[in-house]
Structure formats: C-alpha cells, structure tokens
Amino acid sequence: MDVLNTERKSKKKTTLSIKSLVDQCTSGEDLEQWHGTLAEYLPMVQEMPSLNDTSHARLWRMVEAAGISFDEKDEGGKEKPEYKFFTRELFGINDTLAGVMQYLKAAAAGSDVSRRILLLYGPTSSGKSQFALLLKEGLEQFSRTKEGRIYGLDGCPMHENPLNAIPKAARAKMKDECDIFIEGELCPRCAWRLENEFAGDFWQLPVKRIFLSEANRVGIGTFQPADPKCCSLDTLVLTSEGPLPIGSLGSEHEQDLNIGVRQSSGGFDRSDKFYIYRNQRVKRITTRLGYSIAVTPNHPLVVGREDGTMVWVEAKDIQKGEDRKSVV
Question: Where are the beta strands (DSSP E) in the chain?
C-alpha cells in the first residue's frame, strides 16, 4: 500500500511540475481579444504609438527587447553588439547579425533603407534558414504580449494597418501635431467595403486584434526553398475523377486542392495543394509512338528499360535516341 501511495504522489508531483512549467512559460502571454471601430482604435494609438510601427520597427523592437550586450571590442577598440535574441541558436556570426540589425534599425527610423530587400546569401549551414525561423517564431510570440500587440482591419485579407483608412488630407496635421505618421493605402477590397458597406464613413470600419501566425498565414509568409518540379498545363494526370489536364485543377500560384492522384503503387492519395510556376524552362520528350510530355529538366519520370525494370530518371538525363522501352 505504501508503494502504491508513493507512486501516486510521484505521478501527481510530476503532473503538477509540468503544469507549473507550462504556466510559467505562458505567463507573459496576453491573449485578450479586442474588437471595435477605427474611432475607438485611434485613442489607443495615441496612448501607445508603437501600435503604428512599421514591420521593420516591430522587428527591431522585438530583438532589442531581448537585450543587447557590448562585452567584446573590434580591432579598433569599438564595442561590438551581441544580440541576445539570437545567442541560443546562432553562433559565430555576430558580425553578420550586427550588419542585419544595423539595416533594421535604420529602416525602423524611417530611412530609405526600408525600401530595399534584405537578401541572405551564404553557404549551406551558415544559419540563413535558422535566422529567418527565429524571426518568424519570435514575431508570433511577440504579438502575444502587451508590448507587441497588433491590430488590423477586420475582414481584410492582408490584415492591414487600420490607419490606412485615414484620408490624406488629415495625415500631415496628424504627423505634426500627434506624431502619427501614415503612409499606406487601403487594399482594393477594403476600399470597396468602405464605399459600399460603410458609405464612406471610415470611422466605422471594424478593427480587431490579430495574432501573427505562419501556420494560419497571418502576417508571416511561408516559403520552402526548393527547385520546383513542373509539367506543362496540358499534361494529363490520373485522378480519382478520371484523367484531367493538370491545368484544370487550379489557376493560382498556390491554392488548396482536394482530389485523389494516382500513385505508382496503383492507389490514389489525396493531394491538398496546387502550384503554378510561371516562366520555367522545360524539356519536351516524345516517344516513338508519338506520346509527348513537357516537364522541367529536374522532373523525375518512370522509365521502362529493355530488361523490364522500371526506374526513376530525371528528364534532363533522358537523351534523344536512347533505347528506352517506355516513358511513364
């Protein structure tokens, strides 16, 4: 009986410890929802000007909030910054990080640098992807704090800054007298809603608090670095609805899909995404029987050899006049 009681106490203690750990890690989160109108939102911006931050300013504020130390000096005796936001995951690239942070700081201050595109160029395993991942995860967490709160127009697919609805005629005085700078314009959808749903009364446009999320495509985009393997839009694919030209499955660069696609095993697996890549170089392969397919050079094709074996071969490796039995 004593052994049993001890086990129960141990399990209870472990459960409580894990719960305490989770509570401790999430104690700083502010998940309060807010919905209102632009008229109700504007006083909040006056009280907390950082709500009107640009993306560069928000990134810089997030990194700066984690702390900056100056423990090292360069050859000239100048202090070198070390950004604690990156120290747990990135090593040996402090000078590179300092250069990127200098760019962000200048862009956050309103410099023309903000109009430039930041390109990360370097060898494999030099920290490029990890750097981007840290920024994205950091922004998600930062938007869940009081200091990092973000608000957007409710119903806007871009979750744009509500102040974009303020007419240009009032913006100069808002900058001079209230230190609120506005440079954006309403997206076409919100401009249409303003005129047709709110009769031009921009004060009544709905505003809500948003939480950045890569998974939900809110404020953070997703890109998987890879060479696209494409075939021409007239290529027939075997689907659960019969043979279909692949171009008939969608028309956007990226869109959701729900259809079964024939696999080499003989069954159908559900495909949930469809992509279109424009201006790709393709190679057209025509068999002796006149069947033809156009694919990117890196696209694999199943090739039947004279000995009856079936192998995967990239299109670029299939040469004219080769003695192949079939191409699938």
Answer: 35-37, 68-73, 79-83, 150-153, 206-210, 236-239, 242-245, 254-262, 268-275, 283-286, 292-295, 300-304, 310-314, 326-327
| Residue ranges of domains in the chain | 30-35+150-223, 49-116+126-148, 226-278, 281-328
Rounded distance, CA 123 to CA 96, Å?
A: 13
pLDDT tens string 309-325:
778 888 888 877 665 54
Q: pTM of the entire structure? A: 0.63
- Indicate the SS3 state at residue 200: coil
List strands edge to edge, sheet with 300-304: 310-314, 300-304, 326-327
State the amino acid at position 103 in one-letter form.
Answer: Y
Please name the residues in contact with 324: beta carbons below 8 A apart, sequence gap of 6 or more. 303, 304, 305, 306, 318
pLDDT digits (tens, 9 = 90+) for 211-231: 999 888 898 887 655 566 788
Residue 128 Ramachandran class (φ > 0 left, ψ -120 to 50 alpha, else beta): alpha
Chain-centroid distance of CA 180 in Å reads 28
The residues near 304 (Cβ < 8 Å, ≥ 6 apart) are 310, 324, 325, 326, 327, 328
